[in-house]
């Protein structure tokens, strides 16, 4: 289901025994917000040159590229890799494997 607070509240109220499961789309969308925040935080650092600040400012869409299309010089690849890892974790077959993947 969607991760919107009122939805969660309604399910807990009207279906108290239901197990809430968030869908892949919303989990990845929320992680994209994390990626963007990391990018903005890096961009606002005082110790960066104007060139690096400009690069970060214009790098947002780099993170939307498929891995195969990402060039080495396009930074922020660490959070990009984490986003792909999150997708892999989502596709695990059972909760035991998911817990192990999350711990890793």
Task: Quickly list its features.
104 residues; mainly alpha; 5 helices
Structure description:
By secondary structure, this protein is mostly helical. The chain has one domain. Helices cover 59% and strands 0% of the residues. It contains five helices and no strands. Helix 2 runs antiparallel to helix 4.
Question: Quick gist of this model?
Answer:
It is built from five helices and no strands. With 104 residues, it is mainly α.
Order of helices and strands: HHHHH
Domains, number: 1
Low-confidence stretches: none
The average pLDDT value, as a whole number, equals: 82
If you compute it from the alpha carbons, what radius of gyration comes out, rounded to the nearest whole angstrom? Answer: 18 Å
Oligomer, anyone?
single chain
**Residue share in helix:** 55-70%
What's the total helix number? 5
Shape: elongated
Largest sheet: none
- Report strand %: under 5%
The count of DSSP E runs of length 2 or more, i.e. the number of strands, is: 0
Tell me the distance between the termini.
26 Å
Which structural category do the helix and sheet elements fall into?
mainly alpha
């Amino acid at each position: 289901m969607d991760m919107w607070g009122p939805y969660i509240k309604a399910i807990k109220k009207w279906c108290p025994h239901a197990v809430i499961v968030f869908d892949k789309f919303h989990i990845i969308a929320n992680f994209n917000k994390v990626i963007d925040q990391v990018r903005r935080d890096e961009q606002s650092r005082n110790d960066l040159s104007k060139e690096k600040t400009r690069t970060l400012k214009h790098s947002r869409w780099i993170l939307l590229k498929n891995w195969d299309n990402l060039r080495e010089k396009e930074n922020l690849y660490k959070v990009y890799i984490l986003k792909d890892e999150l997708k892999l974790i989502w596709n695990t077959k059972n909760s035991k494997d998911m817990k192990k993947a999350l711990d890793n």
